[in-house]
Design goal:
The structure is a homodimer of 242-residue chains. By secondary structure, chain A is mostly helical. Helix content of chain A is 59%, strand content 0%. The first copy, chain A, is built from 10 helices and no strands. The radius of gyration of chain A is 23 Å and the shape is elongated. Chains A and B meet through helix 7, helix 8, helix 9 and helix 10 of A and helix 7, helix 8, helix 9 and helix 10 of B. Chain A binds a DNA duplex (30 and 30 nucleotides) through helix 3.
Chain lengths: 242, 242
DNA sequence: CTATCATGTGAGTGACCACTTACTTACAAA
DNA sequence: TTTGTAAGTAAGTGGTCACTCACATGATAG
């Protein structure tokens, strides 16, 4: 009864803004400590609001998590740049662009942690997340490599395996430094150059002699590495999700 | 008062056996669900004992976790086999052995999960774990690659970066299949062969012409990749994290 | 037989968790 | 001014967590 202007709390924001600030706070915490390691109280405090308000925006903690994952699944402008280099058959540029992008730019440091956490914790959205955001790269790459093989520029190898190798180098590089905190022993630029050089050298035709004889395609049981047609569908229904 | 022969529980075991069975149960659960995602009740139940007994063997949940990590840090018999191939300069065998070992044999499936979980959750033993069990491989490899470079068998590249690339391919392969549950698209043998082929092709001297002229070592500003002197010396101070 | 002691347990304990309830406040349309 | 409603909160609630305590059991040494 004797309360006048006691409670101040957060000033009012529109639902959208508030939702965004909650997601930002939660993403940082989940990336740092995982889903089970983060409490809703912490999230609310970080976002500067009460726990109750948090639950007015997201019905459960899991729904909030799902919203974060869904939001992070926007694909980058990277593919356009790569596409251009790919059409010019500039192999060095194609792989350098991808490596550079994933190593310094576009490398939201919390994203890798979030992704690993969600996969390890068996979150049901992890698959979708992984498939849209990550797999796209190496399926696209596999398509490019297969094309260059047909053209005789690359040796015949399993293109999907080759693409995985390249992405593997890059991702492991990040895991080493971002997750295991291994201090870098050379500049990011040198690392990118080193990976691309090593990988391309392994792919290029050793001698022009290999150029004919491609049609044979002895791979036999090649699975399905032909370019994911509709690579990124619409982000599946996120809001609710139990 | 009316109790007569009610409680049966586990039959008595020696402290050692019991401790081992607790560790086994806990390791499986931690690997599956992480530290925060696993309850001591579950662990006790899986081990077939009461929670109270669990806490008689390990003072805290964290101590139990530490015991598991410490136990998993025994290094394998792998290095001996590799050493032999290395002395014969059998490059293919060296890399195939390592890849094979890490891909099908000696690949305790829970180990990768445990390692990733502990790194993500910032457990203080993660550093030690990683350094002893994992880093050894690529530091050893870097040494071997550097030697083969000196001998003119490999192109001049940054040996540590090359070693990381190779381990990266292999580890990413496992992460893809064990963590993200991507179905394998070829047999493990083909995968191993593919990775080794790709990697070695990238390393080998393109032409014999390169063989002389190594002494020049035009790298100029080469950083510090000269054979980790005491390959597994004391770790660089990485040990923060609560 | 009995005292000892490691091995074992059921039944807690306080702390903290995700989530709810009952309420207030600010603001804009009527 | 009234009033409808979205934005906001303090103070819970039941359940679960890591961890404890008082006591039971059984093998064995004297």
């Amino acid at each position: 009864m004797m309360r006048s202007s006691k409670k101040v709390g957060a000033q009012k924001s529109s639902g959208r803004e508030r939702q965004a600030s909650i997601i930002a706070a939660a993403a940082a915490l989940f990336a740092q400590k995982g889903f089970n390691g983060t409490t809703t109280r912490e999230i609310a405090k970080t976002a500067g609001i009460s726990e109750a308000l948090l639950f007015k925006h997201f019905p459960t903690k899991r729904a909030l998590y799902a919203a974060i994952l869904a939001e992070k699944v926007q694909l980058s402008e990277l593919l356009a740049a790569v596409q251009e280099a790919a059409e010019k058959r500039d192999d060095g540029r194609v792989f350098t662009l991808i490596a550079k992008f994933r190593i310094h730019r576009g490398a939201d440091p919390s994203l890798l942690r979030l992704l690993l956490f969600s996969a390890l914790e068996g979150h049901e959205l992890s698959d979708m997340f992984f498939r849209n955001r990550h797999r796209v790269f190496y399926e696209y790459l596999a398509g490019y490599i297969a094309r260059r093989m047909e053209e005789g520029a690359f040796r015949r190898v399993d293109p999907l395996l080759a693409a995985q190798s390249f992405i593997g180098m890059i991702v492991y590089h990040r895991i080493l430094h971002e997750i295991f905190r291994v201090p870098p022993h050379c500049s990011p630029e040198d690392a990118v150059a080193g990976y691309v050089d090593l990988f391309l050298a392994g792919l290029r035709s050793r001698s022009a002699a290999a150029k004919r004889g491609i049609r044979k395609a002895r791979e036999g049981a090649r699975p399905g590495y032909l370019l994911p047609s509709g690579a990124m569908g619409r982000p599946p229904g996120v809001g609710r999700v139990k």
